[in-house]
Each structure stands twice: as C-alpha cells, then as structure tokens.
Amino acid sequence: MTKPKRIYLAGPEVFFPPSEHQAIVAEKKRVLREYGFEGVDPLDTEIVFSDDEAKPDRGQRIYRANRKLMDSCDAIIANLTPFRGISADPGTVFEVGYMIGQGKPAFGFTLDNRHYRERAGSTGLDELGHTIEDFEMSDNLMIEGGIGDSGGQLFVADQAGEHQFFSADLFRRCVQALAHA
Fold first, then answer.
1. Which residues contact 33 (CB under 8 A, 6 or more apart)?
2. Which of 70, 99, 146, 166 could make an S-S bridge to 104, C-beta 3.0–4.6 Å?
3. Range 114-135 average pLDDT
4. Topology adopted by domain 5-179
C-alpha cells in the first residue's frame, strides 16, 4: 500500500475558537481521506512553552514547527477567504508562497466572490493616491498567479458557504482538482 500524499491545510482557522477550528479541520481531513490523502493542520504539532519564554521566541518556534510540517507535505490547500481585511490572511499567503517555492502544487479557495479591486473600494486609487490593482482576480496577482503556475487552482464560491470562512463543497472541489493533477 502506498503512503497517502500529505496535504498542508493553511488558513485563518487556526485563530478560531478551538471547537470551531477542530470541527472544520475534521471535515477537511475527512474529505481528504476519501481521496487517499492525509490532511496536515498547522496545529498538528505539539509545542510546549515555558512561562518565562519570551513571546518573540514562542513565535519563532511556531514558525519553525509549521515550516517543518510544510516540508513534510506534498501540496497545500489554502483558505484564502479575506481575513481581518480585504485580502487573505498574511500567514496563509506566506505558506502558499513557501510551498510554491519548493515546487509543490498549491490549491486554494475563497468564499468572497468579489474581485480584489471591488473589495478595495472599486476605485483606481486609494485615499493616499496609491494605485489599486485591477486584474479581475480574487486577490493580489502574485497569489493567484503563483497558484496557477504551481499546477494548482483557486476556487471561488458562487455563494456563501455554511460558515463565513468555510464551505465543504468548495474544499471538496480543491481536493478533486488535486486528485486529478
């Protein structure tokens, strides 16, 4: 029996309350298992902090642990639904770039079907006079362009999912595309 391909599950869910995070991750892993994949969540690592450990040191340890998990995976599926602003979670975007930089395919989904420019105010310039990109893409061109060049695909919801930040149907579309890649 061949070992299932490991898929890193990136997204803002790590910031959700524990029960909400666990329910979403359990569903993602269940869908992945249906297709012979193993889902790997950023919180699948055990990190113990001492009371006197400085917060920047804790952050570095989390970064290294997540990077080690990504190194052990064959592809990434990222939740790129805008989080805390008009764009995807910056940590998730880093993880997508990290995986693409290793030559691994990246797949993503967003529940916000508006183009980036629309989310930025549907204007050519922001309040400081800086240009707002207009490429009719879901997010910054580097994110969507990188996903496409990696052999992956970004899936955009036609309508809201069962959760503000998660749709099992949209996630399944990512997994199906990955299975056929």
1. 4, 39
2. 99
3. 93
4. Rossmann fold (3.40.50)
Domain limits, the chain = 5-179
Is the predicted pLDDT of residue 58 greater than 70, yes or no? yes
Helix or strand run (H / E) with residue 161: none
What is the rounded (10 degree) CA torsion for 161, 166, 170, 173?
-160
Find the helix packing angle between 18-34 and 168-179, rounded to 10°. 40
Residue 163: the pLDDT is 74
Question: Both tokens of residue 175?
Answer: 């997994």
Summarize the confidence of residues 5-12 as an average pLDDT: 98
How far apart CA 108 and CA 171 sit, in angstroms, is 8
| Consecutive H or E run containing 146 | helix 141-149
pTM above 0.85, yes or no: yes
Query: Under 8 Å CB-to-CB from 143, ≥6 apart: which residues?
Result: 80, 88, 93, 96, 108, 154
Query: pLDDT tens digits for 73-113?
Result: 999 999 999 999 999 999 999 999 999 999 999 999 999 99
Cα dihedral value 48, 51, 57, 60, nearest 10? 30
Please give the Cα distance from 135 to 158 (Å, whole number).
19
